[in-house]
């Protein structure tokens, strides 16, 4: 076995031996191994440490027995970490999956507040940091319709500040939507696809009708040999933010039930048909109940983030696959920590970057392209 450590002295040698022994015992105990039949009986083949760098961060490279994948180690990381005396493991695949590099995490990366750093004007948008401290980011072109839920003061708005201020920097994105609270979309200049405040509730219906016509126009404009519309500066991705959507519906129901019905219909059409036309809906609610937002509508939102909610059942409204223990634990999540579901990504906990409102207003104010959107 080849081992290396950064400061070779006797104490380090003891630590290396401890980790290698603990790794073997942990894998054996957690069943992270392959059972192989040999002439002398069944033998346990463990992922073998081939390289070790003492940290922090301590990293071990292991060779995986045939049939074992890096994600098998990842799946068992909760059971492996305590044996190794660490909080968690970050696992990366190497050598086409024949090896895994395992980093021993000393503390919960989600415990620390992560200040928002303005990102580049192109490339993926940062959603947050996951339990292994890795950035979770998504290209705006791949954004699914999104549902964001959380009780009051759970971190929905702060998440949106970071999210929208990144989108605002781009000339191929236009921020639209309905914001009854008036705070979230207020920093943006006027736009015919945007309603800020509910002084004139008719505007909500008119604006969403306008977005639906834009969607229809775009669908007709999809080239004959394509099934989606390409977005770019001339045809920006429209991100339609529906801030506290159930609250908006309640207000409209009280004011003009017929108009509210139309609003529900427009939102349903946008969710069902607009993604191929370069329009994304981001719906924010304290609780994404099917009776209020519609179950077919909720099903169309493949991107889901739940900040702290009141009950485990509320967690399951958006993440039916969440284990019961995680759902219960999440009812006590600190502000800014969300459960995230994205297409092609298993359920994970993330911490949203922290951007105060003043920073958000400043970032949007400095963004050039959105200024010309009206
Ligand atoms: N990512 C974060 N990191 C650290 N602290 C956060 C984060 N997000 C939110 N907080 C803290 O929680 C407070 C409430 O957050 P926020 O205003 O986003 O909640 P909200 O879910 O939008 O609540 P409401 O439903 O009342 O609008 C913030 O003022 C901030 O102190
Ligand atoms: Mg809020």
Q: Tags for this entry?
A:
374 residues; alpha/beta; Threonyl-tRNA Synthetase, Chain A, domain 2; Rossmann fold; 2 domains; 10-stranded mixed β-sheet; 12 helices; binds adenosine-5'-triphosphate; binds magnesium ion
Structural write-up:
The protein has 374 residues and is of the alpha/beta class. It folds into 2 domains: 10-107, Threonyl-tRNA Synthetase, Chain A, domain 2 (2-Layer Sandwich); 110-372, P-loop containing nucleotide triphosphate hydrolases (Rossmann fold), CATH 3.40.50. Helix content is 34%, strand content 24%. It is built from 12 helices and 16 strands. It has helices at residues 10-30, 70-75, 77-84, 156-168, 202-220, 245-255, 257-273, 290-293, 295-299, 312-318, 324-330, 357-366, and strands at residues 34-38, 41-45, 48-53, 58-63, 88-94, 99-105, 125-130, 135-138, 146-149, 173-179, 194-196, 237-243, 279-285, 303-306, 337-342, 345-351. A 10-stranded mixed beta sheet has the order 8-7-16-15-14-9-13-12-10-11. Strand 1 (34-38) and strand 2 (41-45) form a beta hairpin. Helix 1 (10-30) packs antiparallel against helix 3. The model has no long low-confidence stretch (mean pLDDT 91). Bound molecules: adenosine-5'-triphosphate and magnesium ion. Adenosine-5'-triphosphate binds at residues 113, 150, 152-158, 286, 307, 335-336, 352, 354.
